[in-house]
Design brief:
Shape: elongated
Number of helices: 1
Number of strands: 3
Radius of gyration: 14 Å
Distance between the termini: 5 Å
Low-confidence stretches: none
Largest sheet: 3 strands, antiparallel
Strand content: 35-45%
Strand order of the largest sheet: 2-1-3
Mean pLDDT: 91
Amino acid sequence: MKQGSNFWVIGGEFGSMNFHKLVEGSAQVQGPFGTRKEAEDAWRAVSEENRHKAGVRFSIVEEPSRLTA
């Protein structure tokens, strides 16, 4: 059995600069990624694509580890 974490890149366009609520239909989820490095590469790419949009933000989220067969 292998124990490991999955990483996800989540985000989208937010309705205001306090980044509390996504604009409906703008949510994006990428992953799962097996390593943080893979997630960071995806985050960097999607952030670069959207850097001209001030209200767009993405984060890396680690899914809790669990045992897998």
